[in-house]
Amino acid sequence: MKKIAVVTDSHSSISPAEANVIGVHVLPMPFTIDGQDYFEGVNLTRQQFFGYQRAGANIGTSQPAPAAVMELWDKLLQEYESILYMPISSGLSHSCQTAFAYAEEEPYAGRVFVVDNGRVGTPLHRSILDALELIEKGLSAAECKAALEAAKNDMVIYLAVETLEYLKRGGRISSTAAAVGTMLNIKPILHLATGKLESYKKARGMHKACETMLESIRSDLAIRFQEAHSRGDVFLMAAGSADEQTTAKWLKQIETAFPGMPILYDDLSMGVSCHTGEGALGIGLSVRPRV
């Protein structure tokens, strides 16, 4: 019997193709669009998602059905001794708390270990790669969970939003603030830490927003993550929902600002894109867990 299966959801931005290569299992996240049910990467592509969003469709996110989660757990436990389940942060979805509850019951107690380390999108992707490294080192599922959760706060991501429309729709800003911000070309920069997306700064125009994010990362490397960076334990991440040309330009800016640091880039998951819309750009850092 194999030792540990790693399971996540599509909020990790891990594609089915990559999941197959690295050997993890990805649950597709469900969406409701104008009353119809869809699953990310199954019967809903990014192009279709943004098309519905531009058309003003009513888009809602949900958590995987408990039956679907447990069906996958049951299947994997026939092949693996234990499961490391790494869903979206509990600060952003109830799916994590639901998983905790089921993992305490038989036949999952002591075999399914739910990790809540405040991650979503590329930080969650990076955390899953960390988990695979820990498993390769011989850690048990319980030890992996402890190491990953101990590193919960050793991460930061900044995300600049091109449009205020979807923050308004989600109730994160008022209609008046959105109207004024649009008129003044204000681009909010969001900050992901401790599992929640929060307002960080505002900038006039996307160019200034990108400069602000790069400067914030420089500061984090020089101060907050200085020791880990000196050890070579800091990973650079990027994400976005912009077009290919804009994305390529952003990645070039990052490469120029931080030469020699490999970049893990992902398209923003549809769940995050519900709040950002198209055109968002992000950058972040994550520290390798210490054991």
List the helices and strands and how they pair.
Layout: E1 2-9, H1 16-22, E2 25-27, E3 30-33, E4 36-39, H2 46-54, E5 59-61, H3 66-77, E6 80-86, H4 95-103, E7 112-114, H5 122-136, H6 141-150, E8 155-160, H7 165-169, H8 175-183, E9 186-193, E10 196-204, H9 206-224, H10 226-231, E11 234-240, H11 244-257, E12 263-267, H12 270-276, E13 281-287
Parallel strand pairs: 1-2, 1-6, 6-7, 11-12
Antiparallel strand pairs: 3-4, 3-5, 8-9, 8-13, 9-10, 11-13
Q: How would you describe the overall organization of this protein?
A:
- With 291 residues, the chain is α/β, with parallel strands linked by helices.
- Helix content is 42%, strand content 25%.
- It is built from twelve helices and 13 strands.
- It has helices spanning 16-22, 46-54, 66-77, 95-103, 122-136, 141-150, 165-169, 175-183, 206-224, 226-231, 244-257, 270-276; strands at 2-9, 25-27, 30-33, 36-39, 59-61, 80-86, 112-114, 155-160, 186-193, 196-204, 234-240, 263-267, 281-287.
- Strand 6 (80-86), helix 4 (95-103) and strand 7 form a beta-alpha-beta unit.
- It is globular, with a radius of gyration of 19 Å.
- It starts with a strand and ends with a strand.
